[in-house]
């Protein structure tokens, strides 16, 4: 029996569009770690929390189908997006509870799936973010053994955001209010964790469609706090957070009058750099805030 870790891979929407470098770096990193991903090509957008504003049943049915696709492969569902993790993971929790407490509701969800010739939800698998896979399934000691390039000069500020910490009733390997999993990954690859107040707060992305200035000021506060604490970069496990913190940083600077210029890395990019993978392979040239200062610190 193969000891290779295997997952049904749910890349999500943003990583296949605006943050293509996340899709790219996840592929490179998992290949380097001998983690096999089977991409769920037929999966649908998780809805990023918006479906339930119209219908809880809609959110549950769409994501029951996503989970069922992983179940059909007899594999855990892996995502590298905190928002997808929060939404799909919470649906999985809710439907597993429904199996015991509200079987009629689960039957209703599955009736829509079978009507469309989709496999029914069975509650036989798990939803795992890449962060949990690195910390729990792969293991930090094994990860440390793979390090080829020291990151000891790099001060990294984790930005967890909301969904990976508090969308589900329980999360593995961490405390939702005082998390350490990202910082433990930083230590494993030789980087220095930087702590600051806003690392577990909202990035402001959900506000951006109707309260843009408030969204920008929220993001600016987090970035400035990280800079003041001595961060060389911010690292996030969520592409939506990345969009607000990196892609809109220039707009944030105009609104707030603050000069920021803090590089925002995706989690797999940082880990892969420590494994000796080149910046070009990781799409670090795609960021709107230049990552040059980070790469210079690392000797590129």
Spatial order of strands in the largest sheet: 2-1-3-4
Number of strands: 8
- Strand content is 5-15%
Bulk shape: globular
Question: What is the alpha-carbon Rg in Å?
Answer: 19 Å
Care to describe what's here?
It contains 13 helices and 8 strands. The protein has 300 residues and is α/β, with parallel strands linked by helices. It has a 4-stranded parallel β-sheet with strand order 2-1-3-4, with helices on both faces. Strands 6-5-7-8 form a 4-stranded parallel β-sheet, sandwiched between helices. Helix 1 links the parallel strand 1 and strand 2 (35-39). Helix 1 (20-32) packs parallel to helix 12, helix 3 (56-72) crosses helix 5 and helix 4 packs across helix 5 (103-115). The longest helix is centred in the first third of the chain and has 20 residues, at 82-101.
Keywords, separated by commas or semicolons:
4-stranded parallel β-sheet; single chain; 300 residues; globular; 48% helix; alpha/beta
Short structural summary:
With 300 residues, the chain is an alpha/beta fold.
What is the element layout, followed by pairings?
Elements: E1 5-9, H1 20-32, E2 35-39, H2 51-54, H3 56-72, E3 77-79, H4 82-101, H5 103-115, E4 127-129, H6 130-145, E5 155-158, H7 163-166, H8 181-188, E6 192-194, H9 212-228, E7 233-236, H10 239-247, H11 249-256, E8 264-266, H12 267-274, H13 292-297
Parallel strand pairs: 1-2, 1-3, 3-4, 5-6, 5-7, 7-8
């Amino acid at each position: 029996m193969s000891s290779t870790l295997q997952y049904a891979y749910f890349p999500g929407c943003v990583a296949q569009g605006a943050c293509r470098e996340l899709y790219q770096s996840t592929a490179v990193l998992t290949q380097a770690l001998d983690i096999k991903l089977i991409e769920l090509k037929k999966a649908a957008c998780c809805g990023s929390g918006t479906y339930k504003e119209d219908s809880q049943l809609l959110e549950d049915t769409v994501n029951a189908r996503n989970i069922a696709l992983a179940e059909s492969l007899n594999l855990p569902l892996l995502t590298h997006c905190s928002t997808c993790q929060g939404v799909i993971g919470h649906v999985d929790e809710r439907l597993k509870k429904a199996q015991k407490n509200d079987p009629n509701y689960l039957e209703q969800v599955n009736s829509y799936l079978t009507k469309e010739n989709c496999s029914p939800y069975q509650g036989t698998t798990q939803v795992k973010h890449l962060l949990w896979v690195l910390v729990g399934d792969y293991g930090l000691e094994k990860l440390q053994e793979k390090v080829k390039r020291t990151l000891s000069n790099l001060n990294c500020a984790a930005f967890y955001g909301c969904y990976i910490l508090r969308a589900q009733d329980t999360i593995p390997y961490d405390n939702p209010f005082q998390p350490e999993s990202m910082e433990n990954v930083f230590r494993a690859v030789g980087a220095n964790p930087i702590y600051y107040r806003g690392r577990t707060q909202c990035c402001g992305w959900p506000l951006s469609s109707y309260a843009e200035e408030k969204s920008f000021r929220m993001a600016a506060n987090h970035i400035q706090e990280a800079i003041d604490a001595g961060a060389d970069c911010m690292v996030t496990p969520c592409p939506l957070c990345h969009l607000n913190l990196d892609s809109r940083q220039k707009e944030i600077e105009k609104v707030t009058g603050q000069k920021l210029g803090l590089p925002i890395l995706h989690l797999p990019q940082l880990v892969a750099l420590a494994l000796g993978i080149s910046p070009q392979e990781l799409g670090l040239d795609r960021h709107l805030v230049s990552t040059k200062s980070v790469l210079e610190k690392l000797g590129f």
